Amino acid sequence: MLNLLSQYSQSRVSWFLLLFATLAFEATALYFQHGLGLAPCTLCIYQRMCLLGILLASVIGLLAPKRLIFRVIALLIWLYSAFTGFNLAFQQARLQFAPSLSDSCTLNVDLPTWLPLNEWMPSIFNATGSCAEKAWAFLTIEMSQWMIIIFSCYLAVGIIILFAQCFAPTKRTTWRN
């Protein structure tokens, strides 16, 4: 099984699927913001940035999936982004469902000076909503809880794929690029 996963990770198809899934989540976030008029909060913008990190990881994996160094760098970026996104989603869910007096959410997005996306694209990266607001739910699960599920899945799959890198694929396989 781990041999097969190692082989899959050396295929551009797998990295493209990661790219496609991440683009679908980013497009969904933009639809919620611009199509449904849901104002994103600061934590929402940061979670979107984590999805962009996973998108970057998929592009790096697409560049040279057969080279171990590219796969490992891509996997480490993927895992860091998924872990950070999970923590942000968990923090947002805590603000929504079990707030304490010490919990707060900043009003302005604080991005690095070398990448001020909120200044370059304010319609996408400016936070205008409240982190504690429950604006959308599907199957009685709030958006922050969905993001916990999504980032948990990204994290679990990334850990398994990283572990699979220790196992070389066998010669008798049928998976192709």
Automatic annotation (TrEMBL):
Cytoplasmic side: 1-14, 165-177
InterPro entries the record matches: DiS_bond_form_DsbB/BdbC (IPR003752), Disulphide_bond_form_DsbB (IPR022920), DsbB (IPR050183), DsbB-like_sf (IPR023380)
Keyword Oxidoreductase annotated: yes
Main location per the UniProt record: membrane
Transmembrane segments: 45-65, 72-90, 146-168
Compartments it resides in: Cell inner membrane; Cell membrane
Topology in membrane: Multi-pass membrane protein
UniProt-listed Pfam families: DsbB
Regions of this protein lying in the Periplasmic compartment: 32-49, 91-145
One GO cellular component, as annotated: plasma membrane
GO MF annotations in UniProt: electron transfer activity; protein-disulfide reductase activity
GO biological process, one term: protein folding
Intrachain S-S bonds: 41-44, 105-131
PANTHER family registered for this protein in UniProt: DISULFIDE BOND FORMATION PROTEIN B (PTHR36570)
Record function comment: Required for disulfide bond formation in some periplasmic proteins. Acts by oxidizing the DsbA protein.
Official protein name in the record: Disulfide bond formation protein B
Naturally occurring in which organism (per UniProt): Orbus hercynius
